Amino acid sequence: MGMDKENNRMQISKKIMRQLGRTNAAFDLVEEGDRILVGLSGGKDSLTLVHAMREQRRRAPFSFELIAVTVDYGMGEDFTDLVAHCREHGIEHHIYETNIYDTAKEKIRKNSSYCSFFSRMRRGSLYSAAQKYGCNKLALGHHLDDAAESFFMNLIYNGQMRSLAPKYRADNGLIVIRPLIQVRERQLAAAAEANGWPTIGDEACPSMRFDVKMPYARAEMKEMLAGMEEKYPDIFTSINAAFGNISDESFFDPERFRL
């Protein structure tokens, strides 16, 4: 892989584009006339997403618009390389400034878990940015590994059978889509490495500046799934299929059995 110099676009693997196409067709994620905001953190997932969607737009038999938005937490982040990357590849890119970092100082407690707090704040900021820039959809870079980890976290810690939806409508009417939800994380990592993208890692996460617990639950799920995949190599294929083959009549809900 690498950049197509003539067209100034990155080369995304056929496997990623094929799966993105299948997911899009199954759930009607991208449609004629959409104006889609891509949440661009600068990590491998969101960079693959924005470049894959640009390629999707080039191939699609209908037109839609894309813009990328990066949430600035207000802690002096340096987005120089990311801004330059977007400019080089003709990606409309905006930095959305927030005071999330200062808000966290006031609200987050010592030794508390931060993941849900920052996720909620970041998502809210992207919702606001979508409204500001006239977008009807928000695209997020979650992948199949994220969905599997979320499923087992909900199962083990919350007693819920729940994961990440490919598409849903937020309370404010914005449609949220996850075009890469059936793609493996390692495929996205390979794309970022092959293209030499200037990825942003954990250093951009506000939590690194707080005395808070690390997200051990998700790390545990990742480790557990890696062990399961070693024993059952096709487990992610099965998990992906299972998410679409739910026999809800077999679960222990009394209302289902009132014949």
Description:
This protein has 259 residues and is an alpha/beta fold. Helix content is 45%, strand content 12%. The chain contains nine helices and eight strands. Helix 2 (44-59) links the parallel strand 3 and strand 4 (65-72). The N and C termini lie far apart (58 Å).
What's the helical proportion of residues?
40-55%
The number of distinct β-strands equals 8
Straight-line N-to-C gap: 58 Å
Averaged pLDDT: 89
Note the quaternary state here. single chain
Run of helices and strands: EEHEHEHEHHEHEEHHH
In DSSP terms (H or I, runs of 4 or more residues), the helix count works out at 9
Main beta sheet strand tally, sense and closure = 6 strands, mixed
Q: Note poorly predicted spans.
A: none
Rounded Rg: 19 Å
Structural class: alpha/beta
Strand content: 5-15%
Coarse shape: globular
Which sequence of strands runs across the widest sheet? Answer: 5-4-3-6-8-7
Features:
alpha/beta, 9 helices, single chain, 259 residues, six-stranded mixed sheet
Summarize the structure in short:
The chain has 259 residues and is α/β, with parallel strands linked by helices. Helices cover 45% and strands 12% of the residues.
